[in-house]
Amino acid sequence: MSAKATTFQNLDTNQQEQWRCYVRLFFLIIFAGVILGTFWFGSRYPQLIEKAAHITTLTPHSFINSSELIPVAEQHSFLSRVFASFINWIWSMRIGMTFGLAMGALLHTLFEFYPPKLTGNIYLNTLKGIMIGAPAGVCVNCAVPVACGITRSKNKIETALGFMFSSPTLNFLVVSMVFASLPLAFGIIHYSLIAVMLLVIVPLLVWLYRKQQPVLEETGACAINLKDSFCKETILESFNGVLKSYGKNLLSLIKFAIPMMLVAAVISSFAVEIIPFQTIFGKVSFIGLALTALVTVLLPVPIAMEVIVAHHLFVSHVPVQYVMLFLFTLGTYSMLPMIYLWKEVSKTLAVSLYIIFVVMGIIAANLIQLFL
């Protein structure tokens, strides 16, 4: 044991720091494996497979939650229904948001110890976010803490946006649900517009945003400040250092995300009880589509909820324009990513994306009537 310690201390500073990089990376990989394995195989994919297998028979309890902890009935008072919607939304989001917080803090910690080599290629950075987001299988709301972890660690905003918008829409089980439960035209229009959003609009908005920001200095891998005390750092001390940094980042995300979640839950619970959707569905008009889109884009729904709602509306013979509108606007954006972008990135970017999703939802609603 003493010989090994002496050998390590006899290494030069760069070799010692490289050894510590490997130790920290090992612990971070273990953390990631535990978090992803628990979420994917213990919750998310079993739930998505269950939804995909029964998509044609599922009836949504509400436009904002996929499971009911407190049943809601028409005879209940208005405030009782709002309270039930609030609790049911929290209940529906509990697992996804827990994963989002845990993974966001992990990415923040990872990029603190191993800052990525920044590139000016917006498309490449966006594609990185898409490739990470699609298999992640989290709703756009639960993707917010992950995106926050990315941007707080000085990574590119386009990577965070690519992750947020691809995770709820491009997961292979969600894609299969869209094409299995609705006529082909719905899926073609939906994913054509998603492609335009991810590959054209996001890079363009980020390019415009970046032109107004100072240029960041690029950093290399494992760019950690050296301290004399690190020269005697043991494996246990490396583990404690990673754990301490992770805990600090997790607590920071919780303080940011939990109040934001509660605000979103309250607003959306009131919205779904106040807005007379059934009356709106009675007549197709530009004003009706626009007003509906202004609301549905902001509703914070669980993953695949847009597919369940769209299928339910379609078999209930709601006009196809509203079916397409709900399919595209539910779950692609919401007040949670809007608040995150407003507070942490850019107010202009947050509002611009909201307006663009509303406009694209109206376009989608008008396109569907050309095919059906």
Q: Care to count the β-strands? A: 0
Q: Low-confidence parts lasting 5 or more residues at pLDDT below 50? A: 1-8, 216-232
Report the principal-axis shape: globular
- What's the rounded overall pLDDT mean? 83
Strand content: under 5%
Number of domains: 1
Instruction: Outline the biggest β-sheet.
Output: none
* N-to-C series of helices and strands: HHHHHHHHHHHHHHH
Give the termini distance in whole angstroms.
Answer: 75 Å
**What's the Cα radius of gyration?**
23 Å
**Helix count, DSSP H or I runs of 4 or more residues:** 15
Helix content: over 70%
Structural class: mainly alpha
Brief summary of the model shown:
By secondary structure, the protein is mostly helical. The protein is built from 15 helices and no strands.
Care to describe what's here?
With 372 residues, this protein is mainly alpha-helical. The chain has one domain (2-371). Helices cover 73% and strands 0% of the residues. The protein has helices at residues 2-9, 13-53, 78-113, 122-136, 143-152, 157-166, 172-181, 184-211, 235-274, 277-281, 286-296, 305-315, 320-329, 335-344, 347-371. α3 (78-113) runs parallel beside α5, α4 packs across α8 (184-211) and α5 (143-152) runs antiparallel to α6. The chain is globular, with a radius of gyration of 23 Å.
